[in-house]
Known about the structure:
The chain is α/β, with parallel strands linked by helices. It has 13 helices and 12 strands. The chain binds guanosine-5'-monophosphate and manganese (II) ion.
Amino acid sequence: MMTKKITDENVEKVRELIESNDKIVIVTHLSPDGDALGASLGLYHFLDAIEKDVNVVVPNAFPAFLSWASGSKEIVFFDKYPEFAAQLIEDAELIFCLDFNILKRLGDMSAFVEKSSAEKVLIDHHLHPDDFCRVVISHPEVSSTGELIFRLICRMGAFDMINKHCAENIYMGMMTDTGAFVYNSNDPDVYFIISQLLGKGIDKDQIYRRVYCDYSENRVRLTGFAVTERMKIYPEYKTAVIYLSLEDLKNHRYKNGDTEGIVNIPLSIHDIVFSVFIREDKDKIKLSFRSVGNFPANLPATEHFGGGGHLNAAGGDFQGSLADAVKRIEEILPLYKHFLSDSGT
Ligand code: 5GP
Ligand code: MN
């Protein structure tokens, strides 16, 4: 048995919306990660199984190591097919917004979702969701949006409609948002849910290998380069910074997703509690923040980089050069010195 998280009222509202609407679109955030994709495709397989006209529309590409996910070939990419994607969003009667809390996280797609007359349901686990959906299922205390999809389907009395494809995607979401169950994963319900998903025939060991052991040689070399050539340690702040330029990425034939996980590496160093990964993109500098213990990674993300996120995982942007972004981090670290030096694992 699981503890109840989603309210009866929200379960009922979603059930009614699914029953009374046929054309359904699922959207998720820019550069979809394992949970964004897993939750979206998990819900997609469920809605497909109950014979809804359902499409998953995402702003841009997801990493190649997620492309094995069942249903991923049916996904519509807004950046590749903007007119088709916009039409699907406009024609939708019901839109599920998964794994994000503010419309801005959809990039250029946000305007289309905002103006669509469809009913909208938010299912997410980020703090402080904006008010842009009729039904808001927001639970920052759960591991992943994938977990919420499982909970919602079960609470609607439709556990039997979860097929293996649906279960695999839900598991992928839960696994990737907990770093393969090493953080945000102390809730016993997580393991109850996994046991139920195993009962649907998923091969969890194979899913792990597909996600974490199927990298290109270039990706592994880029990771090594980042650690040996581009990592700075600030012992007085228990902080590490890794930065990569467009040139560095080009030299390693960078593909979308190749830098995922680099930000976690410095946290394996003794007494490092805060890690910042800074990547130069074509139009901006992207920052990822990770922490262990009680230092809120989302604080610098929100206060200085127009971003946000969770306690231990956050992100934001910077306009300027890569060197200036590193400098900015060095300038703000003293502001958090007290917090950081008190932080332990
Ligand atoms: P990542 O470092 O994997 O890109 O992002 C980690 C988490 O930080 C995401 O799950 C998301 O919650 C948050 N995040 C990343 N980038 C941004 C951003 O630009 N704005 C906001 N609000 N949150 C972000
Ligand atoms: Mn998530």
